[in-house]
Design brief:
It is a single chain. The protein has 407 residues and is α+β, with helices and mostly antiparallel strands. The protein has 13 helices and 21 strands. Strands 1, 4, 5, 6, 8, 9, 10, 11 and 12 form a 9-stranded mixed β-sheet that branches. A hairpin with a 5-residue loop joins strand 9 and strand 10.
Amino acid sequence: MPLIRPFAGLRPVPERAADVVAPPYDVLNSAEARERAAGKPYSFLHISKAEIDLPEDTDPYDPAVYAKAAENLNSLIEQGILMREAQPRYYVYRLTMGDHVQTGLVAAASVKHYDTNRIRKHEFTRPAKEDDRVRQIEALNAQTGPVLLAYKSDPELDALLEKVAQGQPLYDLKADDGIGHTFWIVEDDAITEKLSAGFDAMKAIYIADGHHRSASASRIAKSIGGSDDQMSHYFLSVIFPHNQMKIFDYNRVVTDLNGLSKDEFLKKIETNFTCVKETAPVKPGKPGEFGMYIDGEWYRLTINANLIPADPVAKLDVSLLANNLLEPVLGISDPRTDPRIDFVGGIRGLQGLEKRVNSGEMAVAFSMYATSMDDLMAVADANEVMPPKSTWFEPKLADGLVSHVLD
């Protein structure tokens, strides 16, 4: 079975694309989605967050939500806002955030190769979130939220994507957050064949974001049955060269010092870290370095070199902080479930950490050095799993630019 293949995308007609495109479903809560979609009848949020068209107290997992999503999707098709591609195609998708540009391939990715770990994972999934995506796909008979994938940069494939991107785009949009979304159809059959062959030659590609979406696609394929070459056995994906992707730091804040005074806390962390007070906010400049904000003051923490192991998971900065400070000093043994810890995406800046501590909501904050794509791929290649909240990818893929219909 091919690793990826073209598909007949369901997409907006060009003159309506700006009215349809929306933030990904999982970055907005229901209230935020309702506000963003106000006065925008064609916004894809009416499909991805269909509870916004039901009473405000509606549970987002209520069966009525999935039924409403299907109704709204069919309405956009009937109105001619969305159209189905006449034949299977690849698409090229460019994201622009300030000076950062990344250009990837929109394709249908194989569930079989996901199941056999050729499409590699690095996170656990939560059953409730998987169930939500399964119900959404079943109701729509389509996957509407793309999985963000990465491939080890290949000069020939990268050049093919750039060649397509020299042509006239189908869409060229700027979203409310300033992110640029540019979209091309690959209409040259020779380029399509080269793209398919190039990816088929790869040993593996990697899930960056979208573990629940890919896991739900696998469940759908199993429930439908049939052969692995059916379109229901493929899932919507956008695949970028690993060296173009941008991972932000994913920082930590903790509610209390586990019964310690500030002086006692600082004394304990000096067992495993060099601790130096700084006069300005600390954004770590290398692995093994951390910023810490407490009581209106910033410190630079550097872990003792002998505590950095070779294991691809244990050597991650998020693991080093957890294993050498959060658990032994602050008593946080499971950051996935402990209510005393919260996580702040690096896109919010160091001021976001200061705000949480200065408000009295949190006692201490830690700024992190961002996980690298090489680290992510090493963990996935070792068939291991990262700690929760290890990566924060920006810019985000939009919903609504293209969907994958299962038949």
